Amino acid sequence: MATVNLRNMAINQSGTIVAVKVGGELGRRIREMGLVPGTEITIKQRAPLNDPVALRVMDGTLTLRNNEADYIEVDVSS
Amino acid sequence: MKPVLTIALAGNPNAGKTTLYNHLTGARQHVGNYPGVTVEHKEGYCLRRGQEIRVVDLPGTYSLTAYSAEELVARDFIINERPDMVVNVVDASNLERNLYLSCQFLELGVPLVIALNMIDVAEKRGVTINAEELGDRLGVPVIPIIARSGKGVGKLLDAVLAAATADIRPQPVFLQYGSDIDQALTDMTPDLTACASLTAIYPHRWLGVKLLENDEQIVHKIMETHPEAGKQLTARCETVSHHLQDTLGVYPEAVIADHRYGYIKSILLQGVVTRKFVADRLYTSDKIDKVVTHRILGPLIMAGILYCLYTFTFSYSSLPVEWLSKFFALISKGVDTLLPDGPLKSMIISGVVDGVGGVFGFVPIIMFMFFGIAVLEDSGYLARVAFMMDRIFHFFGLHGSSVMPFIISGGIAGGCAVPGVMATRTLRSPKERLATLLTVPFMNCGAKLPILTLLIGAFFSDHQARYMFLSTLVAWLIALCAAKLLRLTVLKGASTPFVMELPPYRFPTLKGLLIHTWERTWQYMKKAGTVILGISILVWAMMTYPGLPDAQVSRYASLRQEAQRTMAADGAELRKALEKIKADEAREKLHHSIGGQIGVALERVSRYAGIDWRTNIALIGGLAAKEVIVSTLGTAYSLGGIDAKENSSLQERLNRDPHWNPVVALAVLAFIMFYSPCSVTVICIARESGSWKWAAFSILFNTLFAFALAVAIYQIGILLYPR
Q: A36: domain range?
């Protein structure tokens, strides 16, 4: 299993979330938007200054800052 | 059945809740604020089969935690006000994520009907949803609708009426959260049962789940009402939390969320959703985003769109603004001819008409601005702007969405802080929002431009354009740095996560836009209109009372007679002499007034920044509205009331005045750019921040800051260029 940090994923790369290692408000925000283990995501776009990042989750598009993406680990082996 | 049925609309932002609400209630709606928070409370009425229905539009939320004011408001309304029915608007094209909120309603056991919105969008993406099947599995009615066109809304209301008449309070859905959590919930039961006053309001299991999620409001309530049981319960939650972190490395709330999604997935898997074509679906929105948020094209397009919004707001509104000012001038003239000279007339013209006129002068700008923003917001573009700009604004402790208020307030010189402050409503993060609305008044608004032009023209006429441009850059820099300063001190705290949705692009509906624009404009007129009238009369009184002593009045009268006696009756010379006398009298009257006396008294402090009493009076006038500065300065230099646009005489006068020089001009410029916002802005700050405390703060903070800056410029200036 090749696990990478969401921050290091390339545009158009897809993967499955393995872990979200953060609690508190940020953790809850991330989870309620559907970023939970087992969810498939695809990196869609990066902002002009490389941060934040836009990704496709379920049937919507979300944005995250890089330092928030740090808590999310993604399996990109498939 | 009750005479009036109350239904609450709940759902994710962008799920079409407001569209449905507008469709149901039309123009018959009432907007207010929930007490203590700046979350809008909207309600309206509609009629279905002779039954009157009160519709409450709850703020859009993704979840029912206690983290944001919006979520607390929604949760408290549903729990405390017990609406007869909760209508959960769900975006069919993004079903799984939207059902996360529905799942929490089911856990809470509220009477629920699901409005499956935007089925047309889902169909276009090849997704078919079997609403009946979904309803059976969830145990609540699911009605497919298209809120934009109103299709299915009648059926939805019928389902609401049917479910409400059935009058069975549904049982909370029993969700499994995995063995560790389930065991903990069982163990907690006796202690939870002891909290009788809370279990009367909340379901047992829900309370337990909230405690495990470490929900601030619920923990606080339990500790307050049942401290003994509360201690036991929180201790147990901590044990579970430690256990989960040791064994699985996760928090209990993560486990609970996972199981909610698990429950949703299990429901959706069983023939509820069919996808006709999966492939690599490149939706229209994605195609647009490839260009619109492109690394190079993106910022260029954004600059273009913002510029258009700006031109639209400030150019197209100038015509109605002119009509309004003509209209108020007409009233002034009418009063002038109808009433005899005296304090009443002076008060009505300078206090009431000018004050109310000042407020209504902003109305067209605010309407145009809100219309423009509503277009950008409803179409989904505003979220992209926040996405592109966040990197820069986050550095200064702000949020990507702060861009819009800054631009409107004068990011391109000539804006206005009033709509700017009101535009901060699009920010959903409280700290960043407050920092934004406290710093936008630093920008160069349109009312500051005449005085900036005047001073720059008088002392730096060789580099006029360069100085004007420089002042805009300085305003940006100072505003952003001030925001950073606030976020490091009074508004300290971690930044709100940027976990945000980029909603698909949609064509806004005209009805939605108009309702949006009107309700905000109306709120402004109601609030600002009343307070401003008082302030305007106060400033008028300060500049008028006490009048000149009788000896002075008679001296000017005799001067007039003298002039009339010695000069030819219809000569230009006489007219000039009389005007001169009138202006001198006005200047002396101003000097003698309360405002004038304050100005003189303030000179003791203001001289450190090189500001004399005349300028002080003008600055005091500027507290009401910055436009007043130039005209008051004119009176103080006995030039009579001069027109802000034709200020060449004042310019010359200042240039010749021994007290003025480029250093003084620079200090005064800096002070005017950054001191207390005008009264309309202050009132808007109080309203938008929900407290007069912040309004007072902005007056003091800005004035002190501006003064420190002006003193620094003046002192360094006279050191470098001694007279």
A: 3-75
Mean pLDDT over B466-473 rounds to 84
Tell how strand A40-46 and strand A53-57 pair up: antiparallel
Give me the domain span that covers residue B144.
4-166
The β-bridge partners of A4 are A74
Are residues A37 and B67, on separate chains, in Cβ contact within 8 Å?
no
The answer to whether B129 and B97 have CB atoms below 8 angstroms apart is no
Locate B512 and state its tokens. 């939605």
What are the two backbone dihedrals, phi and then psi, of residue A44, each rounded to the nearest 5 degrees?
Answer: -105, -40
Q: Considering only CA atoms, which of B71, B267, B135, B109 is closest in space to residue B202? A: B109
Instruction: Name the more confident of B423 and B331.
Output: B331
Q: CA of A1, closest CA in chain B: separation in Å? A: 18
pLDDT digits (tens, 9 = 90+) for B115-143: 999 998 888 888 889 999 999 999 999 99
Q: What does the alpha-carbon distance between residue B129 and residue B123 come to, in Å, rounded to a whole number?
A: 8
d(CA B685, CA A67): 32
Q: Do the chains contact at A59 and B95, CB–CB below 8 Å? A: yes
Q: How many residues does chain A have?
A: 78
Interatomic CA distance for residues B379 and B402, integer angstroms: 18
Q: Check whether residue B98 and residue B246 sit in a common domain.
A: no
**How would residue B367 be classed by pLDDT, with cut points 50, 70 and 90?**
confident
Q: B502-538 pLDDT, tens per residue?
A: 888 888 888 888 887 887 788 777 766 666 677 778 8
> pLDDT band at residue B631, thresholds of 50, 70 and 90?
confident
Chosen domain end from B535, B568, B588: B588
- The mean per-residue pLDDT over the stretch B309-314 comes to 77
Query: Do the domain assignments include residue B343?
Result: no
User: Nearest CA to CA, how far is A49 from chain B (Å)?
Assistant: 7
Return all residues near B519 (Cβ < 8 A) that are at least 6 apart.
B29, B31
Do B242 and B162 have their domain in common? no
Q: Is the pLDDT of residue B107 over 60?
A: yes
CA distance B531 to chain A (A): 39
Q: Which residues of A touch B257 (CB under 8 A)?
A: 28, 31-32, 36
Indicate the DSSP class of residue B55.
E
- Strand pairing class (B4-11; B85-91): parallel
How high does pLDDT run on average in chain B?
Answer: 85
Residues B31 and B76 both lie in one domain: yes
Statement to judge: residues B147 and B193 lie in one domain: no
Domain count across chain B = 3
SS3 B223: helix
pLDDT of residue B53: 93
For residue A42, give the CATH number of its domain: 2.30.30.90
pLDDT tens digit string along B185-211?
999 988 888 888 888 888 889 999 999
The amino acid sitting at B236 is: R
Selection from B248, B347, B257, B281 nearest residue B545 by Cα: B347
Count how many residues are written for chain B.
723
Residue B294: phi and psi, rounded to 5, are: -60, 150
CB distance from B394 to chain A under 8 Å?
yes
Q: Which of B498, B501, B505 to mutate to test the interface with A (most CBs of A within 10 A)?
A: B498
Q: What is the pLDDT of residue B625?
A: 81
Number of separate domains in chain A:
1
Two structure tokens written together for A57: 């989750």
